[in-house]
Fold this sequence. Notes:
Layout: E1 2-8, E2 13-20, E3 23-26, H1 27-37, H2 43-50, H3 55-61, H4 63-74, H5 76-80, E4 89-91, E5 97-98, E6 107-111, H6 115-123, E7 134-138, E8 143-144, E9 150-152, E10 159-160, E11 163-169, E12 185-192, E13 195-196, H7 197-204, E14 219-227, E15 238-243, E16 246-252, H8 260-267, E17 277-279, E18 303-308, E19 312-320
Parallel strand pairs: 6-17, 8-14, 9-19
Antiparallel strand pairs: 1-2, 1-5, 1-14, 2-3, 3-4, 6-7, 10-13, 11-12, 11-17, 12-14, 15-16, 15-18, 18-19
Amino acid sequence: MKLATFRNPHLQKPRLGIVFGDYVIDGCSAYTAMLKEEGEEDAEVLADAVLPSGMTAFLRRGRRAWDAAERVLFKARSFINKEYGEGLAFKLSEVRLYAPVPRPGKIIHTAGNFREHAKEAEKAKWEFPIPQWISFLKSPSAVVGPYDDVIKPKFVNELDYELEMAVVIGRRGKYVSKERAFDYVAGFMVFNDLTARDIQRQEMKNGLLNFGKNLDTFAPMGPYLVTKDEVNDPHNLKMELRVNGEVRQSGNTNRLSVSLQEIIEHYSWVMLEPGDIITTGTISGVAAFRENPERYYLKPGDLMESEIEHLGTMRNRIVAE
């Protein structure tokens, strides 16, 4: 299943969507229509309780919500053909997609787990080491959607890209063992850890990773939450980032030096909540570690495409503040 958060053009607000082909179905509204057909008198109340209209609330509901979403997906063609009425299914090309989890509780960012990224830093004589298990929190306020603009602040000269995979937590848990880690996963997304290298460089002199990675719009994610059952092997997915059509990063999740299960286990010393996000770190090819990096830093007008096999492609335009 692919889940999205989209702007319902009839209701004019964000809603949980279930993706079917080129369409997105309003989950809560569609489930309401199904319950009404079955004679449920309090269909709206029951639908909102079982299959709520927000992603985080949906993930918190657990198994009953997933079962209801499966029922809607089974009837997808009926909603597209308007057998249940208008305003339940929309063409993806005609709606705005937000980040699938518009406001995560926390984003646990991990770095150094693609060792090729660390090696390219050493080769470029980056002044700070990149050991495994670097971690920091990415601000939820930095989150934007898969096709939203990324704002280059007027005080940033070295705006860099970092293609990553994001793991979306679907179940509350702490001290999770790697053997059970995927029991706590709802699915996966494409993620881009935008970084102001000039600010990062100054911050890291004090051992910090803060504003250089947390400025507004510095966390595009999406386009969908692809459920774990849709991804045959999350440890073997092609990854590619392009700027104006030029390939800048190319890799595969099979180059992770630790497994996704180990990453989840490692960071579950803090309570993981539905809607929380854990990232993998980036592959090689970032601008900062290239020869003549100023040629590769993102500039206003650039179109950045972030793609992971089976998870989709984000397209974000860089704009000046």
